[in-house]
Amino acid sequence: MKRILTGLKPTGDLTLGNYIGAIKQMVKMQDEYESFLFVADLHALTIYQDPKELNERIRKFIAMYIACGIDPNKNTIYIQSENEYIPAISFLLECNTTYGEASRMIQFKEKSKQNANFSVGLLTYPVLMAADILYCDSDYVPVGIDQKQHVELARNIAIRFNNRYGETFNLPEPLLNKNGTKIYDLKNPDKKMSKSEENPVGVISMFDDRESIISKIMKATTDNYNKVCFDREKQPGISNLLTIASELSNIPISELEQQFANKGYGEFKKYVAELTANHIENIQKKYNQILNSDILEDILNKGKEKTKKIAQEKYKIMKEKIGVTRNIIK
Ligand code: ATP
Ligand code: MG
Predict the structure, then answer these.
(1) How far, in Å, are 60, 219, 243 from residue 57 at the CA level?
(2) Are the beta carbons of 164 and 322 closer than 8 angstroms?
């Protein structure tokens, strides 16, 4: 079975974008692949996080994954920071990454512009992501289009390391979902929906209550065409709502276009709002049950033990190849 890996960073509450773009894809793939899923808490630290909020989110994320349909028996679920070998591997990889490569990452360029006092971690975090991907020889990394470049970087680092020191890593590939589903901010549909967005009016959180979900969708930015039609260029807002509705109902976009061909935006929005609120409400019911049970501890202990063993072994191999080991290598 091929191995896939996904990590989500607890920089804010999980959004509908994360659910559709990442978690839902993992649920679909859990029968076909051996799947590793983790909370990328170290990645969250590239931007300051309130310690208490960060800490609470780690547990919330795990419970939410499971509520969204991630089966703990089919997935290895763990917390990134509980595996000390991953940052250790990351440093060895950093020394095989050029500054030019790291600074060319689009996310680095964008986020470093937003804050002049950005941390060094913001620059090196894609290498930590490479460590996440490479320590366990992932075959595929399911990502939204925004993360594709980081998987390609991981692959390039692996190629360089293999060339310098001999075959060490499997070469990972990004796995974009068929329609490259990207969910956009409801208020600003040219921008991706993001959990670290400071102004949440256009962001649906998986923890939002029914009223806020409905109100945010009803207030979503649309256009003057008055035609429910998928056209990313001319009608980004309506196209985004069509994507959301199609993903949550499993009805193809073309069918939804037909269904609302002669109807106004108000009616269409109401449909999307009810659909989304019902869907998230169902997930939240399961989430509350899981958070109040003690299965989380078991799941996390199992994940920690298994992934530490794998990372420890990889770290040892890397050190020996590089030459940083006490014994003289023959
Ligand atoms: P941040 O704002 O902190 O970057 P984020 O919402 O972008 O948070 P990430 O932790 O960066 O979330 O990404 C987790 C996963 O969710 C990745 O696979 C990413 O591609 C996917 N993802 C994030 N936002 C969206 C979105 N709006 N639409 C589809 N997929 C998304
Ligand atoms: Mg992101």
Answers:
(1) 5, 28, 27
(2) no
pLDDT at 222: 96
Nearest CA to ligand 1 atom 25: 17
What atom of ligand 1 comes closest to residue 193's alpha carbon? 27
Please tell me the predicted confidence (pLDDT) of residue 25: 84
Question: Residue 170 sits in a domain of what CATH number?
Answer: 3.40.50.620
Residue 106 is predicted with a pLDDT of 94
Within-domain flag for 262: yes
* pLDDT for residue 308: 98
Cβ of 43 below 6 Å from ligand 1? no
Q: Is the CB of 192 inside a 6 Å radius of any atom of ligand 1?
A: yes
Phi first, then psi: what are they for 133, rounded to 5°? Answer: -75, -40
Contact (CB, 8 A) for 186 and 197:
no
Q: What is the CATH number of the domain that holds 271?
A: 1.10.240.10
What's the confidence (pLDDT) of residue 146?
81
Statement: the pTM of the whole predicted model exceeds 0.85? yes
Closest protein CA for atom 22 of ligand 1 = 18
111 is catalytic: yes
What residues of the chain score a pLDDT lower than 70? 177-180
In the reported structure, the alpha carbon of residue 194 is separated from the centroid of ligand 2 by a whole-number distance in angstroms of 7
Closest residue by Cα to atom 30, ligand 1, is 21
d(CA 33, CA 28): 10
- For the stretch 102-131, pLDDT in tens is 999 999 999 999 888 999 999 999 999 999
| Cα torsion through 152, 157, 163, 164, rounded to 10 | 170
Are both 130 and 209 inside the same structural domain?
no
Please say if 148 is a catalytic residue: no
In which domain, by residue range, is 13 found? 3-176+294-322
The pLDDT value given to residue 232? 95
Tell which one of 4, 11, 18 to mutate to probe ligand 1, the residue whose CB is within 8 A of the most ligand atoms.
18
